[in-house]
Design a protein that fits this description.
The protein is α/β, with parallel strands linked by helices and 338 residues long. It has two domains: 163 residues, no CATH class; 79 residues. Helix content is 54%, strand content 11%. The chain has 17 helices and five strands. The chain has a five-stranded mixed beta sheet with strand order 1-2-3-4-5, sandwiched between helices. A hairpin with a 2-residue loop joins strand 2 and strand 3. The protein is elongated.
Length: 338
């Protein structure tokens, strides 16, 4: 599990299987959409919605599916920011556009496929960001039919894990490991919570341990918990787990060695961390630049070289301001303030 993105790694391990994803989608999709989506047709799209830089790793999972008896996509974005992303509708629009553009290039002349956008959040404070693109626009657009008719809008589906009780999480009837993954994603970052709720999941831990590949799956789960849970005494956690679920012991056998190796590497990692963070920041900036170029191209067509050059040289605050101006700017030059 990559230490830089343990949340992504656990989520992908639990749900990149179409069978497990179908179970999750059955619980998350509204009934009217569940009737339209053939969940047994799910296929993981190679590469998902990801691009070439690190930030786009977080577009997570893209599945092909038959939607209303036609080919379509389901885009599952896993969100683990420390606070809700107010610009999520615009960010999701960028992912949708890239998926449509790829489909258009490969199937030119055919209708664009339907895409169902889903955000799975485990923000400890609960999700508080807008669900619709229209919520980012001024009131005049929403209240004037003439403006509303020429302005795009869509709504993504939100699954806020922090709003799920243990009983509601169990009611989803997922396979044992995906269920435990959602439990850990929901509780592990809240100090003391993973131990507080542990007793409720003893049977799921035992079932996961006895499932095919259960040892590896639980090892990944326990390593995730040891990585992200603050002030967790891992020996105490291990003792409690074994007390309730002895079948999980094989999964702990190599964790001690893994944790020891992490300790030996900490000095090197601290020395590299600043360089890694600078690289991630540059990757995030480049993703934002590509999002702006894609959105401007979709609205205005081919961009002048001066506009592209200005985007590529802009800093993070400037890019954020321009994102908010894309739908209201009269031209690409106006958006980037040329």
């Amino acid at each position: 599990m990559a230490l830089q993105s343990p949340h992504d790694a656990l989520f992908r391990a639990a749900f990149e299987s179409p069978r497990h994803a179908a179970q999750l989608l059955h619980a998350v999709l509204p009934a009217e959409l569940t009737e339209l989506v053939s969940l047994d047709s799910l296929e993981l799209e190679p590469g998902g919605g990801r691009g070439q830089n690190l930030e786009e790793f977080r577009t997570d999972l893209l599945f092909r599916a038959n939607i209303a008896n036609a080919p379509g996509f389901i885009c599952v974005l896993f969100e683990h920011q420390s606070s809700s992303d107010h610009g999520m509708p615009l960010r999701m629009l960028g992912y949708l556009l890239r998926t449509w553009e790829r489909a258009w290039r490969s199937q030119r002349g055919r209708p664009l496929p339907p895409i169902i956008p889903i955000v799975i959040s485990h923000d400890p404070n609960g999700w508080r960001a807008p669900l619709e693109l229209a919520d980012l626009l001024p009131m005049v657009v929403r209240h004037r039919p003439a403006l509303r008719s020429v302005t795009p809008n869509f709504r993504y589906i939100l699954d806020d894990l922090t709003q799920l009780s243990d009983s509601k999480l169990r009611a989803r009837a997922l396979a044992p490991f995906p269920t435990l993954a959602l439990w850990a994603l929901r509780d592990a970052r809240t100090p003391g919570q993973i131990l507080h709720t542990l007793d409720q999941w003893a049977d799921a831990l035992t079932n996961a341990a006895n499932a095919p590949n259960g040892r590896d799956a639980l090892q990944q789960l326990f390593l995730y918990i040891s990585t992200v849970a603050e002030n967790l005494a891992f020996d105490q956690f291990k003792s409690r787990v074994l007390q309730h679920s002895p079948a999980t012991e094989p999964s702990f056998m190599t964790i001690a060695e893994e944790l020891r190796e992490r300790g030996l590497q900490q000095g090197i990692e601290r020395g590299l961390q600043q360089g890694i963070e600078r690289g991630l920041q540059q990757g995030a900036l480049q993703t934002r630049r590509e999002d702006i170029e894609s959105l401007l191209t979709s609205r205005f067509g081919t961009l002048p070289a001066a506009v592209t050059a200005r985007i590529q040289s802009a800093d993070a605050d400037t890019l954020k301001r321009w994102l908010n101006q894309i739908l209201t700017g009269a031209s690409p030059e106006a958006v980037v303030e040329l």
